[in-house]
Write a structure and sequence with these properties.
By secondary structure, this protein is an alpha/beta fold. It folds into 2 domains: about 5-120, 2-Layer Sandwich (Fructose-1,6-Bisphosphatase, Chain A, domain 1); about 135-245, 3-Layer(aba) Sandwich (D-Maltodextrin-Binding Protein, domain 2), CATH 3.40.190.80. It has 7 helices and 12 strands. It has helices spanning about 5-25, 30-55, 85-90, 145-155, 165-175, 190-200, 230-245; strands at about 60, 75-85, 95-105, 105-115, 120, 135-140, 160-165, 180-185, 185-190, 205, 220-225, 225-230. Helix 1 packs antiparallel against helix 2, helix 4 (about 145-155) packs across helix 7 (about 230-245) and helix 5 (about 165-175) packs parallel to helix 6. The longest helix is centred in the N-terminal third of the chain and has 23 residues, at about 30-55. The model has no long low-confidence stretch (mean pLDDT about 95). One of its GO terms (molecular function) is 3'(2'),5'-bisphosphate nucleotidase activity. InterPro entries: CysQ/Inositol_MonoPase, Inositol_monophosphatase-like. Keywords: Magnesium, Metal-binding.
Length: about 250
């Protein structure tokens, strides 16, 4: 039976996640070596599966050299086989698998698997958000939180929650464990296409930190910043960032 695009994204993310858990549990390697093996294993599965299931679509994947042919397609799958390779290699649970479909530059379809938690969050099965935190909670990088995020957190009185991968941070907001994720340290399309698709479906605010929309399948896949948050926090967070000194 054929799958919808959303069903396919969720299926691929779930299967890749199970493969990654099996690779990690076999105990052959750890750390950076495990991260490399996991990336290669999940990437091989996802690339072959997408090309088999949707041969007429474009594909952008972190672990695959881009030949530019995706730019000729309206429909492009954007994939990160392991978002948070360091966390995966360290045996942590804050890493993810991203599978998204962007159509005409918009990522509305996607799934994010959190394999170590046994969860798959998907754009076609949103659930109501729980009440916002009081005070609000902000997820930030556990190693290098951006100064803009720290400035917003201080201004709104947010509690900081250090976390690993971008997908894990975005899904913490989707799951109601946090209320805002603001990043200005640089990302690529595969880092956030699937998280944005899921977050939008759940009714969260999703944009660049200047308020402009996220645009995908660009010639240069670099996407320097994003804001995913409860709608009631968006205007204030955007205003705070706009008032920061340039480069803040």
């Amino acid at each position: 039976m054929s799958m919808t695009d959303a069903e396919l994204a969720a299926h691929l993310a779930a299967v890749a996640g199970r493969l990654l858990i099996e690779v990690r549990d076999c105990g052959v390697c750890e750390g950076a070596a495990l991260g490399k093996v996991g990336d290669q294993t999940a990437n091989q599965y996802l690339v072959h599966a997408i090309r088999a299931a949707r041969p007429d679509d474009g594909l952008l994947c972190e672990e695959m050299t881009c030949d530019g042919t995706r730019l000729d397609h309206r429909r492009v799958w954007i994939v990160d086989p392991v978002d948070g390779t360091r966390e995966y290699g360290e045996g942590r649970d804050d890493w993810a698998v991203h599978v998204a479909l962007a159509i005409d530059g918009v990522a509305d379809i996607g799934a994010v698997s959190l394999p170590a938690l046994g969860l798959v969050l998907r754009s076609d099965r949103p659930v109501p958000l729980p009440p916002i935190g009081d005070p609000p909670r902000m997820v930030v990088s556990r190693t290098r939180p951006p100064s803009a995020a720290l400035a917003v957190a201080e201004a709104i009185g947010a509690t900081l929650i250090p976390m690993g991968s971008s997908g894990a941070k975005a899904m913490a907001v989707v799951r109601g464990e946090a209320d805002i994720y603001l990043h200005t340290g640089g990302q690529y399309e595969w880092d956030n296409a699937a998280p944005i698709a899921v977050a939008k479906a759940y009714g969260l605010h999703c944009s660049r930190v200047d308020g402009s929309p996220m645009v995908y399948n660009c010639d240069d896949p670099y996407l320097p910043d994003l804001l995913i948050c409860r709608p009631e926090l968006a205007a204030r967070a955007l205003a705070i960032v706009a008032d920061l000194p340039k480069g803040g």
